[in-house]
């Protein structure tokens, strides 16, 4: 197992790092743009929040009767599907699908913060972030961003194969699969456990109700 993670660390530094940093900044910018834009568009903000609520309602993750264990499982399944979708877009070497999904995910966070800032103004944005995003987001967001880096890695691999018949895209795909299984999935497991068991308690402590 140690050898696997050493290989993954080496692969991250050589194949994913620059893309990861770029996509992370892209994700953050999407969140900030969404947040500041929604501050002056309350009608659109409420409409988007309704759609976000309906989206989560369809996953049955908003039920007040849902205990932490099934909630953690549901969060893990939902986030793993989303991350797998992002990574799989790499087989379509256009880069735009992965960028679009990451932008939407970043923008959703901005929408949530804008909504809470308007409707729960007694709680600071910093407090919202520290209690509602950081505890599980420190694992979940890197997993999502890394899925985007995997997508770019696969797309670049396709272009390399087209330009060099000796390039092994099979090895490229195998590397991507290992990264998803051994890095992305464990990060999502940890994030789901924290979001189900710890984040709601922290949100309650600062008066923001259930976790995000």
UniProtKB/TrEMBL annotation:
Transmembrane segments: 20-38, 138-159, 180-198
Keyword Transmembrane helix assigned: yes
Domain of life (superkingdom): Bacteria
InterPro entries: SpoIIM-like (IPR002798)
Entry-linked Pfam families: SpoIIM
Keyword vocabulary terms for this entry: Membrane, Transmembrane, Transmembrane helix
PANTHER family: SLR1478 PROTEIN (PTHR35337)
Protein name: Stage II sporulation protein M
Organism: Pallidibacillus pasinlerensis
Phylogenetic lineage: Bacteria, Bacillati, Bacillota, Bacilli, Bacillales
């Amino acid at each position: 197992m140690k050898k696997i993670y050493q290989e993954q660390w080496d692969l991250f530094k050589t194949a994913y790092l620059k893309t990861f940093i770029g996509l992370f900044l892209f994700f953050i910018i999407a969140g900030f743009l969404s947040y500041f834009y929604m501050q002056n568009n309350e009608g659109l903000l409420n409409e988007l929040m309704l759609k976000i609520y309906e989206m989560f309602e369809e996953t049955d993750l908003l039920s007040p009767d849902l205990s932490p264990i099934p909630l953690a499982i549901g969060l893990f399944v939902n986030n793993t599907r989303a991350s797998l979708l992002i990574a799989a877009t790499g087989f379509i070497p256009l880069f735009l699908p992965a960028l679009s999904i990451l932008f939407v995910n970043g923008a959703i966070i901005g929408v949530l913060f804008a909504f809470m800032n308007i409707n729960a103004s007694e709680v600071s944005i910093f407090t919202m972030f520290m209690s509602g995003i950081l505890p599980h987001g420190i694992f979940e967001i890197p997993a999502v961003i890394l899925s985007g880096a995997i997508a770019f890695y696969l797309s670049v691999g396709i272009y390399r194969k087209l330009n060099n018949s000796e390039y092994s895209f099979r090895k490229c795909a195998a590397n991507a699969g290992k990264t998803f299984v051994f890095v992305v999935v464990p990060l999502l497991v940890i994030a789901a456990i924290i979001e189900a068991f710890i984040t709601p308690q922290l949100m309650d402590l600062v008066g923001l109700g259930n976790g995000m």
